[in-house]
């Protein structure tokens, strides 16, 4: 008989320490067996050093996201505002920890964890952008993006949009973002990602005799404190997103 196991899945903390602390506390209350962190740990105008320090203390499976890669591997002169803020406030040891994280991680022979898609940390798995509008990716698009990827359970982040999708015999979960509920982006073209809620997000996946299932979790926290930190650090776009769950227009 398949033994029961429950795993927390988090992603896209983006230096939001109070959101991460609230999620860690919620995970602890649930008696979770393990946790997987899908990357983008520090980038943003909040608490990058303190956040990475907390993550480094966890016995979690942790991988790198595109922003982590950019923070530690791009030339500082090429950093955007969020990556530059994080780079300047991370210690050498914290940057080394980020640099050593893998891009993907297999877990329990059935789970594959990655940030964007298995082959591209800057691509969305479950979303597509057409003429500035975001839509759920079509089945054929998802299949193409998963080509050659092993596993029955696919864990992705990057878009910050919580989703559970069953695709053929695979369960695909995006837990949403712990630390940033909305943003604007210019790749592959200008678009907006919004959840409409300031809550911190994560997911729980469970294996039982009936197979794998997933639950999306929204955790309230002191998001006004996070918004104030963004305001103090000169980022009104983050301030608005953290207060509302919507992207500043």
Structural overview:
The protein is an alpha/beta fold. It has a single domain, classed as Metallo-dependent phosphatases (Purple Acid Phosphatase, chain A, domain 2, 4-Layer Sandwich), CATH 3.60.21.10. The chain has helices at residues 17-29, 48-56, 66-73, 81-89, 92-100, 139-145, 223-232, 236-244; strands spanning 5-10, 34-37, 61-62, 104-107, 111-114, 127-130, 133-136, 153-155, 163-167, 170-174, 182-185, 191-194, 200-208, 211-219. The chain has a five-stranded mixed β-sheet. The longest helix is centred in the N-terminal third of the chain and has 13 residues, at 17-29. The N and C termini lie far apart (52 Å). 47% of the residues are buried. The model has no long low-confidence stretch (mean pLDDT 96).
The largest sheet is:
5 strands, mixed
Outline? globular
CATH architecture term: 4-Layer Sandwich
What Rg is obtained from the alpha carbons, in whole angstroms?
A: 17 Å
What's the N-to-C terminus distance? 52 Å
Identify the CATH class: Alpha Beta
Placed side by side, the strands forming the largest sheet appear as 3-2-1-13-14
Q: Which class do the helix and strand fractions yield?
A: alpha/beta
Low-pLDDT parts are none
Write the H/E string, N to C: EHEHEHHHEEEEHEEEEEEEHH
The CATH topology label is Purple Acid Phosphatase, chain A, domain 2
């Amino acid at each position: 008989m398949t033994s029961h196991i429950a795993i927390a899945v988090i992603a896209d903390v983006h230096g939001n320490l109070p959101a991460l602390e609230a999620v860690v506390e919620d995970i602890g209350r649930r008696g979770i067996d393990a946790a997987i962190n899908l990357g983008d740990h520090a980038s943003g105008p909040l608490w990058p050093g303190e956040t990475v320090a907390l993550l480094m203390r966890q016995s979690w499976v942790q991988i790198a996201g595109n922003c982590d890669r950019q923070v530690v591997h791009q030339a500082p002169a090429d950093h955007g505002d969020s990556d530059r803020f994080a780079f300047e406030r991370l210690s050498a040891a914290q940057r080394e920890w980020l640099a050593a994280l893998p891009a993907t991680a297999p877990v329990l022979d059935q789970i594959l964890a990655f940030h964007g898609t298995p082959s591209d940390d800057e691509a969305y798995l479950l979303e597509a952008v057409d003429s500035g509008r975001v839509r759920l990716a079509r089945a054929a698009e998802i299949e193409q993006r998963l080509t050659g990827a092993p596993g029955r359970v696919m864990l992705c982040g990057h878009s910050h949009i919580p989703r559970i999708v069953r695709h053929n015999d695979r369960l695909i979960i995006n837990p949403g973002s712990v630390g940033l509920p909305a943003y604007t982006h210019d790749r592959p073209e200008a678009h907006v990602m919004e959840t409409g809620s300031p809550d911190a997000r994560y997911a729980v996946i469970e294996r039982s005799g009936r197979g794998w299932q997933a639950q999306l979790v929204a955790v309230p926290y002191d998001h006004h404190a996070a918004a104030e930190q963004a305001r103090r650090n000169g980022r009104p776009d983050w301030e608005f997103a953290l207060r509302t769950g919507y992207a500043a227009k």
